[in-house]
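Thread: oxa(dethia)-CoA complex, take 2
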Amino acid sequence: MYICPLFYPNAMMYYSQIKGLGFYVPENVVTNADLEKLMDTSNEWIIERSGIQERRFFTEGKDTVATMAVEATKMALKNANLEAQDIDFIIFATLSPDFNFPGSGVLVQRSLPFREIGALDVRAQCSGFIYALSIADQYIKSGMYKNILVIGSEVQSNILELSNRNRNFAVLFGDGAGAAVVQATQDPNHSILSTHLHSQGQYAEDLFLEHPGSRLKDRMSPQIIEEGKHLPFMQGQAVFKHAVVRFPEVIREALQANGYAESDLDLLVPHQANLRITKYIQQVMNMPDEKVVSNIQKYGNTTAASIPIALTEAWQEGRVRSGDLICLAAFGSGFTWASALIRW
Ligand code: UT7
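Output below.
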């Protein structure tokens, strides 16, 4: 039963804490030089426009969105000092599920000794991990669950046509997975302070993968393939222009909601969309490199996986310390954008 603290002032107040983090990336490293052999591009162009030096592509038969998520989950559980049986709910963010249905959350549920817990897939693309984290935060604050597994995992390399017609998209994206165990705490001084979610569907077709979808009787046809409409489409410049406005906006929204100034922020973990976008955010928000996590150079844009991978690496490097004020922020297809402010 939910007990409203307004009417029952002695009722328990729950907050959410990220208790453990993990990630997994496929072993297959694809460099810009590898892509030069497949399309009309260059190492210089890719680095100058995006900062990316290499990315990981999955190995068929070894890696799937679900298996990568399971590897990330094992690390997150270990770091949280918890077992699969302790988890009450799975939230899985991905735009590239193993199957059209069911979602990938249930494939994780069956892969480790979880109880018969709920498994929810979230489709908010690059903002997916923060949307999923926000959902976890609400379930924990309501008192419904104690430990929630939040995952972002993507296999995108097999929707990239490594050819000239798809080159503006193909050079940017990679595969990988990240996971976080979110746990109930009664300590507001080490918890998720707030999350902020947005969307603007009028731009849905500026970054989308149209086919196969459910709008046509024949979901796939030779004509669709001929026209390249089975490939992701991106208005790169439009995405860029919106991203550089929405990122600072949603970071400031989170800070203002909690009474903080930009200078109070210890670490920003942005979705790894493009190093130029991140550098622009840093410039307008006056944030030095030490306060911003960038690992797009190694992994490219891994969509829903990018924030948990970056956060885990930052944590492993000792850049996430108890008491730090940390902001996660994302922007992507939808358009969707989101932030989460955490007192670690
Ligand atoms: O997670 C959110 C998802 N997406 C993003 O955040 C992406 C946001 N957008 C971007 O990052 C940039 O728009 C891109 C990196 C995609 C492209 O950079 P840009 O500076 O906006 O380049 P552009 O699209 O204006 O293209 C400049 C030129 C064009 O040639 P012309 O017309 O000037 O002759 C393109 O055809 O670069 C050409 N081009 C390429 N050249 C070499 C496009 N892709 C490539 C390529 N290699 N891979």
